[in-house]
Structures are given as C-alpha cells and as structure tokens.
Amino acid sequence: MRSFSLLRWALALLTAGPALAQTPAPNAIRAVKCGRLLDVRTGRIVANGVVLVQGETILQAGANLPIPAGAEVIDLGNALVLPGLIDAHTHLLQNYRPELGGDDNNMLLTVATLSTARRALLGAAMGREDLEAGITTVRDLGNSGHNGDVALRDAIAKGEVVGPRIVASTRALAAAGGQFGQLTPAAQALVAQEYVAISGVEEARRAVRQALYDGADCIKVIVNTDPRVVSLAEMKVIVEEAHREGRPVAAHAIGDEATRIAAEAGVNSIEHAYTVPDDVLKMMAAKKIFLVPTDYPAEFYTSAFPAPASATPEQRQQYQQGAQGFAAGNNKRLARAVKAGVRIAAGSDEYYQVPGKTRGQSSLQMFRAYAAAGLSPLEIIRAATLNGAELLGLKDKIGALAPGMAADLIAVEGDPLADITALEQVRFVMKGGKVVKNELRPK
Ligand SMILES: [Zn+2]
C-alpha cells in the first residue's frame, strides 16, 4: 500500500490546518509586551508589563522584565493584559432558539433531531465564539448528548479544533425524567441522551462510576426539577464516589430543600440557587462551597427572549416587570451570599442563541448582573479567574499569570477595574501559548 501512504502524506501536507501549523516550537520564547498588566491576586495594575511565554506555559510575568535575545515580541501597545476568563457553567453543545419555545420544546427538538456527532460540531462553533470573546476555559455542565463534551474536549486538547479548555461533566445525574416536563412513554426514551436517571444510592453510585468511565472531569447533578428531588442519601454517595477520584460535584439546586440537600452533602458548587435560605448560605461559606450565580441583567432576558409579537401592551409591560423582578431578586440573593462569606465562581449558563451576539459576547453579560448585585470589578474578575480555576480543580494551571501556569491571556483597551464592561471588548487572546486573535497589532 505504498502508493496509498504516499497519497496520504501528500494530502496531509496540503490539508494541514493553520491551527496545527501555528503550534509554537517547544523552546521558542515569546514576549507579550503591554502597557498595563493586571495581577488578579493582588488586584494591582503594573505599568510596562511583560509576559514571557515558552511553548504553552508562562515563564515569568511582571513589570519591565528583560526580553531574552531572539525572543519573538508581541507588542500590545497600551492594552491591559489579564488571565483568560473562565466560565464555570456553560453548555456548548446546546444552542436553543427562543422562537421555538422554552427549554422543553428546544430540548426535545435537540435530542430528537441532532446526533451527538452533530452536536459536537455545534459545540466546536460555540467554543470558538467563547474563546474569541476571551473565555479560555469552560466547565461544560451537561446536555451534550452521549459524551459529546468529552469528544470536543479531547479534539480541542489535541489541537484538531480551536476552542477553550473544557472541563467536561458527561451526562447529568437526575431523578426520573431529568429536566424534561411530562413526556409520553415513547418520548421518555430520549431522556437518556441528556440525563442518567437515578433512584436509590446504588444507582447513584453506579451513575458516578459510569461518568468516570465515560471521561468526566466533574459530576453534574440536577438536584431538583419540581416535584422530583435527588435525596440527601443519594447526594452523599455521589459526592463520596466523585471525591474519591478527586472530581468536583456541581449541583443544580433551586429553593430551600434542594440547596440544603446539596450543601449538606458537601458538593463543590451550587449552581443557580435563585432562591436559597440564609442557613444554607452559612453552610456553604463554612464548607467552602462555591455559588455559581447564573445571572443576567433584566435587559438580557427581554432582548434574548422577546415577548411574542401577538402580546398586548399590558402583556409586554407585565413581561418587562417579570424580567426586572427576576433580575432584582437574583441581585439580592447574590449580595446575601457574598455578605455570608460564600465564594463566587462566574458561570453564564448560556445555551440560547441571543440575537446579534456570539456565544461568548452573550455569556459575558453575566458580569453586568454581578456588578448590579454590588460586586466590585476586581471581585468579578476574580470570580472569572482565580475562583473558577479553584472550583475546576485547576488552580495550579490557570486563572493567574504566574511561572509554570498555562499561557492563557487576554487583553483589553479599556480599564475593567473602573468599568467591568471593558471585558466585553477583548482584543487579544492567547491560549496555551497560541495566539487565537490579535486586533492590537501596531499600526
Ligand atoms: Zn445549566
């Protein structure tokens, strides 16, 4: 089969993609120069920043560092450089369309019409949009078909697809029916693509072991979809099995009962918690359980999910007030959580196509909600860097610009410490030492 081998070799030369061709030589040193460098640990901005990168990692970051002879210099002018952002809660393999209805309609159409392979390709597009907006790492929390998130994670890690680092959960564990509303028996067969139904502690244990076998980096549990709730005994076994292998547990929980079960079981993060009592917040602070507040400003909800064309003016007003009330309630609970000492990791929970915005651009709107709840810009940046890295179990690899860490860095022209929306205009992205985007080339 020699001729076949030759043909393959010739084809490989012709089709080698730019992503693979751009892989930096392992020993090549690059110097990223910037007017301002943000140290997210101290909260200080230093002038004349330099980040020395070798291969995929950071050698050194600081002010006025000498640039080694022969190093390639990437001059970002007066831009401000900070670590790549981390979205601790997203769903790359879902991109629902509001005009098709709510979650149930979209979820059914997705599982009935898109194969996992097709969804992985959708995820590649969503991941690219996240990365170009400055999100260099995501934790993908389910609704990915049968392990489509693992396939995408591995393809990105191998450089076959350009995208963010992915921490994958595989299918979420849930009570019967997952997050679907009532379905016919025939349609219920589709639920298994999205959720592993558990009932009883041994099923919970088996589901975690299956997730580990499937390649999960973390475990996602839907603690409640009213009136179905995963019990405390089941949650404890899930946490025990996951923690034995060092995998964090993310719990979708809303309301008194579910958030308390999640906190008592000792999960690593509680997602959403749109309503959560004070004693649970206290327990979360004591146990160092992160809150991932998947919040947006009211304008986000009304632009992403506009009222139907047939709505009367009164209905429109009600709709507007509903969005404002929801956002205001979320702001209050986030402020209560911060006051109680609960640590925050940023998470968008983005899975709808927002008109006129890429996936990354719409995800970053979450920062506006955090600001409205009273978080300072530095607290928000830490939620999306240091805290996210710790929650994902990657604090030695990402979330800060320090020697030995992955060279994941982004740059903006504005001052995000004065106005957090400056992060919505990321002009330069480097992930793992590779430049993904650079709109700051000297003119
Ligand atoms: Zn979610």
Automatic annotation (TrEMBL):
Annotated CDD domains: Met_dep_hydrolase_A
Keywords: Signal
InterPro entries: Amidohydro-rel, Metal-dep_hydrolase_composite, Metal_Hydrolase, Metallo-dep_Hydrolase, OTAase-like
Superkingdom, taxonomy of origin: Bacteria
Residue intervals of the Amidohydrolase-related domain: 80-436
Signal peptide residues on this chain, from the entry's feature table: 1-21
This protein's name: Imidazolonepropionase-like amidohydrolase
Species annotation: Hymenobacter caeli
